[in-house]
Specification:
single chain; 116 residues; mainly alpha; two-stranded parallel ribbon; globular
């Protein structure tokens, strides 16, 4: 598996956090190439899957922690701040509030709210 296969799995959240973490740990943290773009729709899809019970709040937090501050990922340009805020909120529930169905619905709405 190469870095971008591991990153695509991460962004899609199609494997358990422990598997994603192990895959990513094989690559250096520092990265200077072209990053993989994280799209608004991908983040919304993960949040929607949480709402139907596919993940626990702890798993969603772990996913966001794996995404946060990676040099090999970038957020969709027109929604960069919104996606960064969603990832930050999910990765830091102690600071930003518990991950709940209501908080995830609000995060999904925040990604929709400033569409062009």
């Amino acid at each position: 598996m190469n870095r971008f296969d591991a990153l695509r799995d991460l962004v899609a959240f199609n494997k358990p956090v422990s598997v994603l973490s192990a895959s990513l740990s094989k690559f250096d943290w520092d990265y200077e190439g072209q990053p993989l773009a994280v799209m608004t729709s991908q983040v919304q899809e993960v949040l929607k899957r949480f709402l139907v019970g596919k993940y626990s709040a702890q798993e969603l937090e772990g996913w966001a922690n794996l995404i946060e501050c990676r040099e090999d990922l970038e957020f969709e340009e027109k929604k960069h701040e919104e996606i960064a805020n969603v990832i930050y909120c999910l990765a830091n529930p102690v600071l930003e509030g518990e991950i709940t169905a209501d908080s995830c619905k609000a995060l999904i709405a925040s990604l929709d709210s400033s569409d062009d």
